[in-house]
Amino acid sequence: MTSEHNTRLTALRAALKSRGLDGFLIPRADEHLGEYVPKSAERLEFITGFSGSAGLAIVLPAIAAVFSDGRYTLQLEQQTDPALWERLHMSETKPEAWLAQHAKGLAIGYDPWMLSADSLARFAATKMVATKTNPVDEIWAGRPAQPSAPAVPHPEIFTGESSSAKRARLGNALREAGQDAAILSDPASLAWLFNIRGADVEFTPIALGFALLFADSTATLFMSGEKLPPGTRAHLGPDVALAERAALPAALASLAGRTVRYDPAAMPVWFKTTLEAAGAKIAEGPDPVALPRALKNPVEQAGARAAHRRDGAAMVRFLAWLAKAAPMGAQSEISAAEALLGERAGEHNFKGESFPAISGAGEHGAIIHYRVTPESNRPIRPNEVYLIDSGGQYLDGTTDITRTIWTGPGPAPDLVREHVTRVLAGHIALAQMLFPEGVAGAHIDAFARAALWQAGLDYDHGTGHGVGSYLSVHEGPASISRAAKPVALQAGMILSNEPGFYLPGAYGIRLENLVLVQPADFPPQTRKFLCFETLTLAPFDRALINPALLTAPALEWLNAYHARVYAELSPSLPAGARDWLAAATAKI
Questions:
Q1: What is the pTM for the complete model shown?
Q2: Structural domain 152-292, CATH architecture
Q3: Domain map of the chain by residue range?
Q4: Each residue's pLDDT tens digit, 89-115
Q5: Cβ atoms of 490 and 295 closer than 8 Å
Q6: Which positions ≥6 away from 204 have C-beta within 8 Å?
Q7: Pick the CATH number of 295-584 from 3.80.10.10, 3.90.1150.10, 3.20.20.70, 3.90.230.10
Q8: Where do runs of H (alpha helix) occur along 279-364?
Q9: Which strand (E) or helix (H) includes residue 129?
Q10: Which fold has domain 2-139?
């Protein structure tokens, strides 16, 4: 690794020098600025070796640094060479502050397709120079080709609303705001608005492209023609014009004098500078699709419940198998993940995993976003903690579940049971919440941490993220996180509930269900209240629960949840798994 990445870093510095640049920013991003990128856009991994889903590298003539967040602290240390890279936590050391300190008087390049306007503005203290092409691509021999999977229609039996109806109501919203058009750069927004799905990135069924949505409800979809077979073209209809990506500059130039909505936090700054050069009026605002996409309609909600029942049955069959296999010590992180995938694969409407399974035994579980490889794979040993975080993509819904398991056959240590039970207490506290309309995830995050805080413990990640409908397993705009911009939770949103605790070098704990925000069945006093409907169906490991650490209401919730899991899943299970589930969900 050292020589390979040293060679690449040396080549990049030479390429920068030839352009008259002293440094360069390399975010983990593609032109859509989302979490999910094709292999051809993994520039950060190519240069540094770091494969996490969030990060940024800064290369200067004599030094270089790579930044990520608390999910990837251990992974960053394992995958990058300290002789080449200073490894930094981006919350503790801001990249813009580091650059301002080390790049005084230097010209720093950036790709205007890889940074949003807001991200670029944070580097205002440094001389920043936009590049026409990306210098990393110049030195990347054997760079993977751009993906070309076809975009396919997603039927209304799953979406619950036609594309024309979606465009009509969003076009009306643009008119009411006095806007003529809106830029759409998030492929998930295209997928939702046009009722299409694709296969351009792993685990997330999106087709890469851009779009302009107009106030008259028409749209232009900028997507490679080879990705649009006749059936998809017919599905899109006459009110959606089709164009290649190369037509984008001319299309934006034609908007001179018109008011165009642009999201400075989530869209490439290229759009902003191009619109300004064309003489368009920019109306800053969030992607108009983001919130409507997050508010699942009744058909999508019903689909999510159905998908979670099937996913739960697969999970229970896996857990029943693991309960017998784990104490024998013959399984590994990879074999267990493959066994779970095998159980899901037989379920109706299953299309693949929603992300690479995080299958971490012992100390690997403490790596929050651990991804097992043939090199890191290790046995799942008896009498240790095993964490499995996984999910499925189904035509009617997207799932994401984490369970923490004691492998046995002996009893779990008291301290481990205490840690798990405190995490469970936080999970239950969130699941039980009643909260008024207008409350955001940032306002309730602490409820999931309180039991841990009482013992001087915490976890370095958010408590919940939004989840799409056969789309991204991480979806905005809402989340449950103290670090996030507050976005009010609304009925129809699906989010995760996943507190955790991680003891480096020993074990990791995370307990995750997906929840659906619903109107509370609660007599209104002065305002309306909301609550969470738990969608995920799978038991929590009794071997890791100390009921003495749970309040009576929490224990009542746990027993009621387990009873529901058994009632909903047992009819579809084979006898062996059904018997195991009966014991796993017995009243505590």
A1: 0.94
A2: 3-Layer(aba) Sandwich (3.40)
A3: 2-139, 152-292, 295-584
A4: 988 999 999 999 999 999 999 999 999
A5: yes
A6: 36, 188, 354, 393, 471, 472, 473
A7: 3.90.230.10
A8: 290-294, 298-325, 333-345
A9: strand 127-130
A10: Creatine Amidinohydrolase; Chain A, domain 1 (3.40.350)
